[in-house]
Structure formats: C-alpha cells, structure tokens
C-alpha cells in the first residue's frame, strides 16, 4: 500500500524537531504534527504585554550539550543568541539565600553546606555515569544513594534540585540520571539562556520544516509496510515511518500495537507533573541571584523561585519584574486541575516569605501546567532502558528525554538524532517517480 507521507513526526518539541531536522538533512520528506498551537513543547515561550515568559525550560549550559550546540550552528544561531546568565544560583537555608550552588564560589563558601558535605558531594559526582548511559550508574533512588553521605547532601542540595528542577520525589526517582546531568553540565557560572526566549531554537528549526500545529493525533497503528495515523479531527494519514516525539504515557496511549520489546519500558516510564506560576510585577524585587532552590524543610508548597528579569533583562519591560514560582512535587498534582486563582494565591502566599512584597508588586499572573512534566526516571524504568535501546528497528520509533531517562533538552535532542538514524536504517529513501 502506498503511503501519503514519507515520515511523520508527532510532536514539535526539541526531540521531534531534532529528529525531523536530521531526516530532512538526509533527503527525507518529513511532516511534523503538533497538538499545541505553538512549537517548543517544554521549551516553549509565551509573549505577553512585553514579557517573555519561558513556560518550561529555563537555561542551557555551555558544557555537556554538544548535540544542542551543533543544532544551533546548523540553523545559524551563534553564542551571541544564547548569552550567559551571569548570576548566582542560591539555596535557601537558615532564613536567607545562600549563594554559590553549582558554582566555583560554593567550593569556598559552601553555599550553606559544611565542609564534610562539600567533600561528600565531590565523591558522589566523581562516579557519575554519562548522559547516554545512565543505567550504568549507581542503582537506587536519590534518597537511597545519598544516604551514605552527609545528610546535607540530600536535604540542602540534591533534594531541592531534583524537586525544583525535575519535579521529582527523591524517594521515587533514580539517582543515576540526576548525577549524570549534574556531572555533565558544569558550573552555573557558565549557564546561558536564549536571548529571545527558550523557544528560539524550536522556532528556527520549525521555519525550515513542514510543521502543522493545532493537530492532535488520536491513534497510530503499525501495519505491514506503513503506519496509519488518525488525527483528533478524524483525518487518516499513512506514512512509511512515524516518530512519536511525545511523553512516554502519551506515546503508549497513541500507539495501538507496540512491540513486546517496547511495551515494558513504555509502561515503566512514568512522568511527574509540574505547575509554574509566572508573576508579572510592577517593579523588580532586590535579589543577587536569579534562582533560589527551596528545600522541603523550608517549604512543601514552592520548590523554586526564579527572577526571570535577572536571567535576561529582556524577559520583562524596563522597570518591571518577572518572577516564576514552581510548585513542590507534593502539591503539583493537586494544582493540575485547580483554578488559576488558587494556584496563584497558594504559591504567591508561600513565596512571600522568601521574597517580601511579592504579592503587592504582582499586577498579573500566568499559570502553566505540564501534566506530563518530566520523566520520573524510576529505578524500574532504568533497569529496562538498555533492552529498550537495543530493540530492533520498526516502523514506529520514539524520541524524547524519557528515552534516555535524563530530564533535559540535550537528551531530547540526542534522542531525536538517534530516532532519525534508526528510521534511515529501517526504510530506504523513497525514490521520486
């Protein structure tokens, strides 16, 4: 049976666009279908009243993101498009923000950590696996692996980072993916952000591809010789190959007949929800840091506070401020379906302790929810990853950071490149009539 399309990529986030870019470079005809009305996925940006609001990812490191930097070069974006943030990351402890987390300064000041905890942290990161093979790292959850070290390593560093950055519960998520990422990305003094919003790369890629937004896919069925897709509007489309670049739970729901070597990993790849509240302020609160991680001992309501106007000055109009609050994993599930006003009031009230005057300065707010926020990377999923990666090539492939079980855009890009390579191996290029 002839196909209507050569390759269809479902999902226009970092993974899907990277896959489509590689396939297009190889001469394949690629159609990208995106359910949302904009590209970027968890690297999307909302522009409103002069504010540039990053609804998902916040920064990009110079180190460890080789595939991302190559992709940026491919689309003609240099490092001037991704300037350094140049601000500290802090940890809240004993009533104040302690500067120097993930920064060379922290080795001297401790960023609130005692000397023994700092030495233990170096020992912990020394044995970290690489980003491509987290399953080769230490077994166990974040809480289990850090139990052998000074208690502050979990309570005032690893715990707040995984809850705030990934939405993880340290007692459920595997330590190895987290350690692989921390060892890879280098000090926070080298972290950058996209000048024009975190969706900059996604928009540049989409401009070079055939992307259709506002088109949810309802079902994907692998037939002999082709793959049948049905959209939510009832339109049917056949493709020679399909790449599902969506979260694992969504991929499992879409793919009607995955192979037996795919199903166990797909079902084990659970996700944590994330809720972000962006406060549009009439002034800029005083802060020496652009990000404050809040340990659970200080709050189980808000886990991270970001001063976006310090991350890059163009995130807010002159004289105004933009502060983002991320819900603690204990609270995020309850806020997924709560009214926006409830999310704003709950997180705003909790953040007032850390940023006095925040609510009085708030003039508007945006609430963004990710039901499938980031891959949870449980030990059970980690144990299945190697077999999933070694599975035979089929007509339907997958891309996303969940494929690598390390929650970051770099692993999403790498997964997109690998999915493209598998497609090119499986189905030769269609010859023109």
Automatic annotation (TrEMBL):
This is Oxygen-dependent protoporphyrinogen oxidase. It comes from Saccharothrix variisporea. GO terms for molecular function: oxidoreductase activity. Residues 15-424 form the Amine oxidase domain. Pfam families: Amino_oxidase. SUPFAM superfamilies: FAD-linked reductases, C-terminal domain (SSF54373), FAD/NAD(P)-binding domain (SSF51905).
């Amino acid at each position: 049976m002839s196909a209507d399309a050569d390759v269809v990529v479902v999902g226009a986030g970092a993974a899907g666009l990277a896959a489509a870019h590689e396939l297009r470079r190889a001469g394949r005809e690629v159609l990208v279908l995106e359910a949302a009305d904009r590209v970027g996925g968890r690297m999307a940006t909302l522009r409103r009243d002069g504010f540039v609001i990053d609804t998902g990812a916040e920064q990009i490191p110079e180190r460890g993101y080789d595939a991302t930097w190559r992709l940026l070069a491919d689309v003609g974006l240099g490092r001037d498009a991704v300037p350094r943030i140049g601000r500290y990351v802090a940890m809240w402890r004993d009533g104040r923000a302690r500067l120097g987390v993930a920064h060379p300064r922290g080795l001297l000041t401790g960023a609130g950590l005692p000397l023994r905890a700092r030495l233990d942290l170096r020992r912990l990161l020394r044995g970290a696996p690489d980003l491509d093979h987290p399953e080769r790292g230490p077994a166990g959850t974040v809480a289990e692996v850090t139990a052998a070290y000074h208690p502050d390593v979990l309570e005032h560093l690893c715990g707040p980072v995984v809850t705030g950055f990934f939405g993880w519960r340290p007692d459920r998520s595997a330590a190895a993916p987290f350690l692989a990422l921390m060892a890879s990305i280098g000090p926070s003094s080298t972290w950058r952000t996209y000048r024009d919003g975190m969706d900059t790369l996604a928009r540049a890629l989409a401009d070079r591809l055939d992307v259709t937004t506002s088109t949810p896919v309802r079902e994907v069925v692998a037939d002999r010789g082709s793959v049948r897709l049905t959209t939510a509007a009832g339109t049917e489309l056949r493709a020679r190959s399909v790449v599902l670049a969506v979260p694992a739970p969504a991929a499992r729901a879409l793919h009607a007949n995955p192979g037996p070597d795919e199903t166990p990993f797909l079902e084990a790849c659970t996700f944590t929800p994330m809720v972000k509240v962006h406060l549009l302020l009439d002034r800029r609160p005083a802060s020496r840091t652009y990000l404050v991680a809040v340990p659970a001992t200080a709050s189980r309501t808000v886990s991270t506070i970001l001063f976006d106007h310090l991350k890059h000055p163009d995130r807010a109009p002159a004289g105004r401020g933009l502060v983002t609050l991320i819900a603690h994993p204990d609270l995020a599930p309850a806020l997924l379906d709560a009214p926006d006003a409830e999310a704003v009031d709950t997180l705003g009230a909790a953040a007032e302790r850390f940023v006095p005057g925040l609510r009085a300065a708030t003039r508007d707010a945006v609430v963004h929810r990710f039901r499938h926020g980031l891959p949870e990377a449980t030990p059970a999923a980690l144990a299945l990853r190697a077999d999933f990666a070694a599975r035979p090539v089929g007509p339907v492939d997958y891309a996303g950071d969940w494929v690598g079980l390390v929650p970051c855009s770099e692993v999403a890009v790498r997964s997109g490149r690998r999915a493209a390579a598998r497609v090119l191996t499986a189905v030769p290029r269609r010859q023109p009539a």
